[in-house]
């Protein structure tokens, strides 16, 4: 295996420069998708791609690609992430994956290390989906899951459409990658969870992304006086929903690896001395295994259907199947970590990523580095310079293995 290493000082400086674009006074970063600051961040990356000698292409929704063309006709290897952030974001979520991809490809070119495959550095738009839904929009457009019309017509809470913003900011381009078949995708990202740090590991070899199933539940009872209505005569939506919530949460002690959250609860009329006649709440269930996720959905329905004191109405509001990453790419990442003598473990991603969208159509994989205290989507987001360097070197070596297979 090669002894090539990325230029960590250059990567570090670029991470700092990009973090200045949209820097918040509290130390965080705000580059909401389809804003001027987001565009400024993308322009910074585009200029770096050009400096590195890559051919730059920007598609009709603003996805940015830096391409190095190999002489062979093999399908290309795409590497990247996103540079948009949440409103109170940090310097690492997304930005790391784009700048490290560029650093790795630039290192290969500078050292004339060669690649059988064309290499593409990608920065997808609107991964976060904060102002405009859905999230992972750029990769959904790239894979054909969303049409240009669907992207352009998505509106924010003020009724402003993405189409209007793309035109106002001259944000989009007219290029495509139609002439370059993409054969695989690899993404480096911060873990956004506490596992690597807690176990003193440097690298997460990501084997897949867990699936999710969201349900919205409405419990309907009858409002009445809290002091005069005997307990046995009540149709108390509050009490019934509390029992349901307890039973639902308890599924996590019965189904291994299940993560279940009731994150939103609304009482009506929500008054201290009135029995609630309606309670609405949500269930967020996640599992890495499709059959277990489906089993969870059955058990949720069973719990909700078994209740007779109130009328229960429930329906699914979102569903994403779990995804297993390509075995070959997982092996390439594991080998790279082993080669660099970095302690690593195979793990599932708890959050959604562009790699999951691309991975539904082609072989894909991900590399995680530790997040301090497991924190992300926060100004507290932090990974050390050496963790960033290690992640980028694993990315470099995985690219070299994959690109020459
Ligand atoms: Zn991200």
| Overall geometry | elongated
Bound molecules: zinc ion
Largest sheet: 9 strands, mixed
N-C termini distance: 13 Å
Helix segment count? 12
* CATH architectural label of the largest domain: 3-Layer(aba) Sandwich
* Computed CA radius of gyration, to the nearest angstrom: 24 Å
The average pLDDT is: 96
Pattern of helices and strands: HHEEEHEHHHEHEEHEEEHEEHEHEH
Q: List unreliable stretches of 5+ residues.
A: none
By CATH reckoning, the class of the largest domain would read Alpha Beta
Counted beta strands: 14
Secondary structure category = alpha/beta
CATH-defined topology of the largest domain:
Aminopeptidase
How much helix, percentage-wise, in residues?
25-40%
CATH superfamily of the largest domain: Zn peptidases
Content of β-strand:
15-25%
Number of domains: 2
Explain what this protein looks like in three dimensions:
A hairpin with a 5-residue loop joins strand 1 and strand 2. It contains 12 helices and 14 strands. It starts with 7 loop residues before the first helix and ends with a helix. The strands form 2 sheets. Strands 1, 2, 3, 4, 5, 6, 12, 13 and 14 form a 9-stranded mixed beta sheet that branches. The protein folds into 2 domains: 8-210 and 322-403, Aminopeptidase; 211-320, Alpha-Beta Plaits (2-Layer Sandwich), CATH 3.30.70. The protein is elongated. The chain has 405 residues and is an alpha/beta fold. The protein binds zinc ion. Residues 82, 93-94, 127, 189 line the site of zinc ion (ZN).
